[in-house]
Amino acid sequence: MDFLHQFVQQLINGVSLGSIYALIALGYTMIYGIIKLINFAHGDIYMVGAYIGFFAITRAGLSIVPALLISMVVTGILGMIVERLAYKPLRHAPRISVLITAIGVSFFLEYASMYFVSPTPRTFPEVIPSVAFNVGPFIVNGQQMLIMGITLVLMLILTYIVQKTKLGKAMRAASFDVETAQLMGINADRVISFTFCIGSALAAAAGVLVGVYYNSIDPLMGIMPGLKAFVAAVLGGIGILPGAVAGGIILGVIEALVSGFISSTFRDAAAFAILILVLLFKPSGIFGKNTREKV
Amino acid sequence: MFFSKKLRLASAVLGVAMLSTVFAGCGGDSGSSDEFKVGANIEMTGNQANYGNAGLEGLRLAIKEANEAGGINGKQIKLVEADNKSESAEAVNAATKLISDDGVKVIVGPAVTANVIAESQVATDNKVPVIAFAATNPDVTVENGAVKPYIFRSCFIDPQQGTVMAQFASKELKAKTAVMYIDSSSDYSKSLGKVFQETFEAAGGKVVMQESFLAKDQDFKAALTKIKAANADVIFIPAYYEEVGKIVKQAREIGITATMLGTDGWDDPKVADIAGASALNNTYFSTHYFAEDPGAKSFIDSFTKEYGHAPNVFAALGYDAGKLLVDALKRAGSDDPEAIRKAIEETKDLQVATAKVTMDPATHNPIKDAIIIENVDGKYVFKSRIAPSK
Fold it and tell me: Distance between CA atoms of A200 and A76, rounded to whole angstroms?
């Protein structure tokens, strides 16, 4: 395999991995955009989504699309419940308290699932035959195409909701300034609740897709992707939706290229080095505008 | 109310104490010269209990068989069992109890490396030989380069599997080039990789690439794409089943057809669940024991008859330790610990459930074959049996 060939193959690997990061990063960024909370439990919501999808497929015998939808709905509701119970009572508390609560929720979800579904990894049944397509000299897997396809569809739906619907307008207004939005008659609590719902549903979709693609899920599977998606959100500019998508895909591609052309040992180091570099040189991220705090 | 509770507690404690004196007295009385007393320091409870209890079942069977066959020079073997609760500190307590209260002359167990290492000081101080049946870490029997005189084991050590797979790759598969894909978060994986490379290159092969991953990784495609480009004859992946399953699956998806090799971490049905049976074709791994191995047949039959379920690998290893001990007691001819120690050290060509073993006096590790299993359409197929090179 020559260099160019390998390069393109790594790009394909990177984009499919990056699509997953992007789906999780969207939830991070939406929640941050509105209540300025880094929801560290987001990676675990993704794990719960994967398990709901798993049980929908194995116990209820559903096929992939209904299982995906059920998982998104149930996990979306779970996201709303988490927000209602853990974050809403702290709406006017210092941000550090909410952040610590988020870490607590994260541990709670991890170890509660470990108790209920046991720490042994589960294997997803093969719901989509894994077909490899040879596009010229390159190999694209059917499941990779599914991941990229579903990610794209979900992003289009999200864009539509945020840009065209009344609720989306309310979300955008709340992300500028929650209090002013309330003065304009927007029910901020409902908007926040809805944001958690959408963010969690996207994470659930990512969880189910990961389960189908990598074929194995376990209660601690959300930790690393959660952190990586956080890096992706910061890279793209936290609070900015297209930024999360771009950040996710860029991160996926960088990881693939680092593993492919330098060494797989440095892959995670590279991902977190990016976080440090972004925070040092352009804390607002790729898509962010430099805003100065007015004194 | 309060007093009565306290009183009840006190009487319960007293009762237990009396009961234990009765038992201890019992042991003391029958511990005369017509019995060999053997201790078993086992993880019966706690999080390593599944290893300990399986091993104990195997050990009990070996002792029972020896007693039914007439014992040692007409004397019966008495197994005194102690629970170490899967904790190192408790392993020391259990060993102390076995040696000073029960007066055992030799101890089998514990199962897990850390517990054996904790126990070894007490055993050495009291000059009581120990046979560890499943602790595969090299440090169990050797300390600062010197062998611990009273500590033995009856299973092979981790690095041996690296040697075995390297020999298998170069001799049987005629591989010239290899890639190693190592779990850099695990000592097990790293030490196996190191030994594999040394042996493979000494046999004239070349390790052309080494890549690494971390336990719990999901996506291996980037590194695998690079490994594919290296186009080596074999890929050596010493890791645990969860990652192994994903690696094999993704490797086949991106079109890697090379032979993949692994170690006993692969010995789990989950690998086939995750990777899929057809992806696993053309892979081999080394392990202690193979259920359909003709040499193990009589053990499996009698074990299944005794307990009503098939033995796992730990039961086989516990049985091996029992066989090794019985053989040593026969040759020692007395229950003098020094004579037993010497007899264990001189074990030669003894047939146990998993293989034929000879004790290496320099390391107190048994010289014994490893089994290589091939995955064929989701089933384990016996491939070969490789003796370690000295």
Answer: 5
Q: Is the pTM of this model over 0.80?
A: no
Residue B168 is which amino acid? F
Q: Which of A152-156, A286-290, B190-194, B282-286 has the lowest mean pLDDT?
A: A286-290
CB contact under 8 A, A263 and B221: no
* Among chain B residues, CA nearest to A121: B242
Q: Are residues B257 and B351 in the same domain?
A: no
In chain A, how many domains are there?
1
Separation in Å, CA of B218 to nearest CA in chain A: 7
Same domain assignment for residues B260 and B382: yes
Q: Is residue B353 part of a domain?
A: yes
Give the structural domain span for B169. Answer: 159-287+371-386
The structure tokens listed for B137 are: 């870490």
Query: What is the distance in angstroms between the Cα of B377 and the nearest Cα belonging to chain A?
Result: 17
DSSP B139: G
* Interface touch B218/A126, C-beta < 8 Å: no
Q: Which residues from chain B sit within 8 angstroms of residue A132, using beta carbons?
A: 253-255
Substitution target in A126, A215, A257, A272 with the highest count of B β-carbons within 10 Å is A215
Question: B53 in a domain, yes or no?
Answer: yes
- Does some domain include residue B273? yes
Question: How many Cα atoms are found within 13 Å in the side-chain-facing hemisphere of A80?
Answer: 14
What residues are paired with B213 via a beta bridge? B183
Q: Which residues of chain A neighbour B228 with C-beta distances below 8 Å? A: 1
Q: Is residue A241 part of a domain?
A: no
Instruction: Report which of residues A262 and B319 the model is more confident about.
Output: B319
What is the pLDDT confidence band of residue B48, given thresholds at 50, 70 and 90? confident
pLDDT for B29 beyond 50: no
Q: String of b and e for B179-201 (b: at least 16 CB within 10 Å)? A: bbbbbeebebbbbbbebbbebbe
Domain-located, residue B107: yes
When computed from its CA atoms, the radius of gyration of chain B, rounded to whole angstroms, is 23
Q: Is a pLDDT exceeding 90 seen at residue A205?
A: yes
pLDDT value at residue B7: 52
Chain A positions in Cβ-Cβ contact with residue B273 (cut-off 8 Å): 123
Q: Do A123 and B270 touch (CB under 8 A)?
A: yes
Same domain, B175 and B314: no
Gap between the Cα atoms of B356 and B376, Å rounded: 26
DSSP classification of residue B75: B
| Separation of alpha carbons B63 and B104, rounded Å | 15
